[in-house]
Amino acid sequence: MSSGLDIALIQTRTPATARAALAHVEPLIREAASGGAKFILTPEGTNVLEQRRDRRDAAITTEDEDVAVLGLRRLAAELGVWLLIGSAIVRSGQAGDGRAANRSLLIDGSGGIVARYDKLHVFDVNLPNGETYRESATVRPGDGASVADTPWGRLGLTICYDIRFPHLHRQLAKAGASVIAVPAAFTAPTGEAHWETLLRARAIETGAFVLAPAQGGLHEDARRTWGRSTVVGPWGEIIAKADHDEPCIVRAKLDMEAVARARAAVPSLTHDRDFLPAV
């Protein structure tokens, strides 16, 4: 594992079709790579962001046929960078289940898919401002965690609402993840209240870098996302962040040795104890 890693988070306002989404994100990825980034991460819903069921169903296809996924794989190979498609909304392939998969795809420098992760926790909530979300109606949740080997160490994969489940992140860290990805399309109300606090908490608890590329602004389906893509260090410090919702690049250099230092200072990952459940 090298001691330094140049990374870039791509903040987007993804359109409602895969072709338009690719045209939106590709220039930002090219710019990030030209600036020296070796690992580039995009947000949740990189290939399409559309919550209206009929329009979403018309826009999505399988992972192997998705224009944005195929284009981003070719782009990673052309640029020679590792790329995390924070998530692509694709047909799940599960017989009898018309719901989609919300799937992270880790792409290596040859354009190959080296890891997949389907979002475990789906966003079913009634927000105080009257907004209602029922992600379970359109997205089939995954059934397993995912940690992938990279040239810089192990990467733990999560998506958006997963950030509220600390036990998942702890399992990723105990499986060797020194970096945890949190691609997101956070709602504006919850983002303003909780986004940074949750990201910093997960980093502190795991002693890992947390990389959180986000969607931002008002989308075609009328949802508004929070943006503020953020890089958090293993001691809980903010290393880099966007302070707005506009499409942009957030760059950082990660000192990978900081993970060992944080975990040595507070070795809580080694201090689990069995206990009786609360009643």
Question: What does this protein look like?
Answer:
The chain has 279 residues and is an alpha/beta fold. The chain has one domain: Carbon-nitrogen hydrolase (Nitrilase/N-carbamoyl-D-aminoacid amidohydrolase). Helices cover 27% and strands 29% of the residues. It has 6 helices and 16 strands. The strands form 4 sheets. Strands 5-4-3-2-1-16 form a 6-stranded mixed beta sheet. A 6-stranded mixed beta sheet has the order 8-9-10-11-14-15, with helices on one face. It is globular and about 50 Å long.
Short description:
The protein has helices at residues 18-34, 53-59, 67-79, 166-174, 188-206, 257-265, and strands at 4-11, 39-41, 82-91, 100-107, 113-118, 124-126, 132-134, 147-150, 153-157, 177-181, 209-212, 216-218, 224-226, 230-232, 238-241, 248-255.
How is the secondary structure organized here?
Blueprint: E1 4-11, H1 18-34, E2 39-41, H2 53-59, H3 67-79, E3 82-91, E4 100-107, E5 113-118, E6 124-126, E7 132-134, E8 147-150, E9 153-157, H4 166-174, E10 177-181, H5 188-206, E11 209-212, E12 216-218, E13 224-226, E14 230-232, E15 238-241, E16 248-255, H6 257-265
Helix pairs in contact: 1-3
